[in-house]
Amino acid sequence: MIVKLCAVLLIFVCQYSAAFAQERIRIAWAGASPANAAIWVLQEKKLMQKYGVEPEIISISASPIVLQALLAGEIDVSAISVTTLVSSRLAGADTVMILGMVRTFVDHILAQQSITNTDQLRGKIGGNHIAGTTAEFALKVGLKKIGLDPVKDVNLRVIGGSMERMIALQKGIVQFTVVTEAAKVQAEKLGYPMVVDMVALQIPFPQNGIYTSTKLNRDNPDLVRRYMRAYVEAIHFFKTHKEETMKIMRKYSRLEDRRALEEAWDWHAKFMPEAPYPPAEGYQLVLQDMAEKNPKAAQANVKDYIDTRFIKELEDSGFIKGLYRK
């Protein structure tokens, strides 16, 4: 009798474990910025599988396209820009941020060699990303902070991603553009000076975030919790395994320059929080900017845009501190 009972229990446990392991999650990220490095670590180190979830992780060219896939139900979780989230929520979309990464801009405004100060940007052509991306928003905010109207004082042209913008700068199609930390090192080697350091301006901003839907949070919170555990572990790995992380960054960013990779790692390891709460003040900045053209933004409540309960659970349980005690 005992033998039969044990056999039945063994079958039940195996079936339960198999079902648990078969749960899937679809994840998308946009842009080859080091701000996405934790997702790359999560993929390379198979951290989702550790928690019994089989991920499908894909790269998409830009945040607005990732958002479309999220709204269509084609993906469950995404890493996209805060501007994309805010604009979608204002339009009534079911999107919410569950995790925030770097809490300020990681961008720099670079220019042709003939431009040595910010006043000389006036009247010049700037290379921009498509509307709704972090780079596009960063360039506008950076120009405003130095006293230039991005509509009246300069001529911004949509060029494309970071690589396309740098090519446009080299060919003289544009006189200035915006790039992240890793690309800045490469650009300076080529003789293009930095005229605005967005990091030094210390503007509150969630550079990249992890988004999902309130529906997923409500209907399958256990899946979200397992994703959050894996992601927090990926952050820990990023901060504590420099050389291996840099190899992963090289693979996904296609950046071969050792110095550029090292500076990108140093910067993100410093500013990437162990407990990555979605920063409400960053959303307030975006809403204030959008309020100039969209009255709904002026009436919006920042609390509707973030869900902090999952990261709070991990922090309160001691899970995060436990990682760094190992």
Short description:
The chain is an alpha/beta fold and 326 residues long. It has 17 helices and ten strands.
What's the end-to-end separation, in Å? Answer: 44 Å
Q: What oligomerization state is this entry in?
A: single chain
Low-confidence region ranges: 1-21
Helix content: 40-55%
β content, as a range? 15-25%
Mean pLDDT: 86
What is the β-strand count? Answer: 10
One letter per element, helices H and strands E, the order comes to HEHHEHEHEEEHEHEHEHEHHHHHHHH
Question: What can you see in these coordinates?
Answer:
There is one protein chain. The longest helix is centred in the N-terminal third of the chain and has 20 residues, at 2-21. This protein is of the alpha/beta class and 326 residues long. Mean pLDDT is 86; it is low at 1-21. Strands 2-1-3-10-4 form a five-stranded mixed β-sheet, sandwiched between helices. A five-stranded mixed β-sheet has the order 7-6-8-5-9. It has helices at 2-21, 37-44, 47-50, 63-71, 82-90, 134-145, 162-170, 181-189, 198-201, 214-219, 221-240, 242-253, 258-271, 280-290, 295-299, 309-316, 319-325, and strands at 23-30, 53-60, 77-80, 96-100, 107-111, 125-128, 155-158, 176-180, 194-197, 209-212. The relative contact order is 0.17. Helix 2 (37-44) crosses helix 11 and helix 2 (37-44) crosses helix 12. Helix 6 links the parallel strand 6 and strand 7. It has 17 helices and ten strands.
